[in-house]
């Protein structure tokens, strides 16, 4: 009696050990699946340059951060340095532009344009109907000196507002009006001075476009390299999980005792009690280890005696689970226990099902295309 109990305890312990192995592998597989999805998403995204490390899943981000993020961070730092240098050069151009503007505003005819038009004081009731965007040199100067992000970003913006000052005056006032003549004269002087600065502005704008394109290309290449390395690592880890599953599968096969003739008979009877849908799933279990078996044929001849022990025990666990859910248990199949050489071992149907499914199904899709370079 004591020997029987000891054997039962050992068997139960073995099941628990196998269950823990399956849980560990399952956790690893879930993590790998998430990382595979991240790599696939990168290559399926049409605009890869918009991806940043902050969009990665936590698992993928941690993995990349260990080995791959260095190049991406390097490209980000270089881009930041280039951007800072470009801002400094643009500020220098803006200072040169400020010199031109100062020369224009110091002209004797500039005083009508130094402050916003006094619409009410001058009785210009239709001014806002004619002029959609009023502008003056006082407003331009304030915006040039702004430090809170509402100022000008480049010389072109200031240039456009200066022209707007004169264009508004010429639009509202008749061409014979003094203000119209003053605005036209100052605009011509301004354009002459602007043409002297324009080559430097055009050169800087061209440089910024080229640097931006290079920055995006470098970032894209760095990200592709990181994902290509990640894909190679994933392939190796997926193969390792496959090996672990195969070892665990062989271990279970070795520990499976042979099912008795009586147990096979009860299993065959129990199969007939399954619903059509569950019966189809049971036949699929048979087909997994028997390539020649056709589970979808109109007439299926299932030879219980010809099946492997692993298939038989998988079928028994599956049948127990389904019949218990359907309330069709009987003495032919005990839904709460599995007969094991006369010993009764409490079974966890869900755990058994997870173990059997994990061992016989290829949990990792080896043929999944991780990347063009993997």
How would you summarize the topology of this molecule?
Blueprint: H1 2-44, H2 58-67, H3 69-105, H4 127-130, H5 137-145, H6 155-172, H7 178-255, H8 261-271, H9 276-288, H10 309-326, E1 337-340, E2 343-346, H11 349-360
Antiparallel strand pairs: 1-2
Question: Short description, anyone?
Answer:
The protein is mostly helical.
**How much helix is in the residues?**
55-70%
Low-confidence stretches: 46-57, 337-352, 358-374
Structural class: mainly alpha
Q: What's the number of helices?
A: 11
Order of the strands making up the biggest sheet: 1-2
Task: Note down, in words, how this protein is organized.
- Residues 105-180 form the Bromo domain.
- This is Transcription factor GTE1 isoform X1.
- Residues 249-330 form the NET domain.
- Keywords: Bromodomain, Transcription, Transcription regulation.
- InterPro entries: Bromodomain (IPR001487), Bromodomain-like_sf (IPR036427), NET_dom (IPR027353), NET_sf (IPR038336).
- The chain is mainly alpha-helical and 374 residues long.
- Helix content is 68%, strand content 2%.
- The protein contains eleven helices and two strands.
- It has helices spanning 2-44, 58-67, 69-105, 127-130, 137-145, 155-172, 178-255, 261-271, 276-288, 309-326, 349-360, and strands at residues 337-340, 343-346.
- A two-stranded antiparallel ribbon has the order 1-2.
- The longest helix has 78 residues, at 178-255.
- It is elongated and about 115 Å long.
- Mean pLDDT is 76; it is low at 46-57, 337-352 and 358-374.
């Amino acid at each position: 009696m004591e020997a029987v109990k000891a054997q039962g305890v050992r068997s139960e312990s073995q099941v628990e050990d196998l269950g823990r192995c399956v849980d560990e592998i399952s956790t690893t597989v879930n993590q790998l699946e998430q990382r595979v999805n991240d790599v696939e998403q990168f290559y399926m995204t049409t605009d890869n340059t918009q991806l940043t490390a902050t969009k990665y899943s936590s698992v993928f981000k941690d993995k990349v951060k260990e080995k791959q993020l260095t190049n991406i961070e390097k490209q980000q730092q270089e881009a930041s340095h280039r951007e800072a240098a470009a801002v400094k050069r643009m500020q220098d151009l803006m200072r040169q532009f400020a010199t031109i503007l100062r020369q224009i505003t110091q002209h004797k005819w500039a005083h009508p344009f130094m402050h916003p038009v006094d619409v009410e004081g001058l009785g210009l009731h239709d001014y806002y109907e004619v002029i959609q965007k009023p502008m003056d040199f006082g407003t331009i100067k304030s915006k040039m000196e702004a430090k809170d992000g509402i100022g000008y970003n480049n010389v072109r913006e200031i240039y456009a507002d200066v022209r707007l000052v004169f264009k508004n005056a010429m639009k509202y006032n008749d061409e014979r009006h003094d203000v119209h003549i003053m605005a036209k004269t100052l605009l011509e002087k301004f354009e002459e001075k602007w043409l002297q600065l324009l080559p430097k502005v055009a050169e800087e704008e061209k440089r910024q476009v080229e640097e931006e394109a290079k920055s995006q290309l470098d970032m894209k290449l760095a990200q592709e390299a990181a994902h290509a390395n990640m894909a190679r690592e994933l392939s190796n880890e997926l193969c390792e999980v496959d090996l672990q599953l195969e070892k665990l599968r062989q271990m279970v096969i070795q520990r499976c005792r042979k099912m008795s003739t009586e147990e096979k008979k009860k299993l065959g009877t129990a199969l007939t009690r399954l619903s059509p849908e569950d019966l189809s799933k049971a036949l699929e279990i048979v087909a997994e280890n028997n390539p020649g078996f056709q589970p979808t044929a109109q007439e299926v001849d299932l030879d219980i005696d010809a099946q492997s022990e692993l298939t038989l025990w998988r079928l028994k666990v599956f049948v127990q689970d389904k019949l218990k859910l359907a309330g069709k248990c009987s003495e032919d199949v005990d839904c709460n226990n599995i007969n094991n050489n006369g010993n009764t071992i409490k079974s966890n149907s869900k755990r058994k099902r997870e173990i059997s499914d994990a061992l016989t199904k290829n949990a990792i899709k080896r043929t999944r295309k991780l990347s063009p370079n993997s």
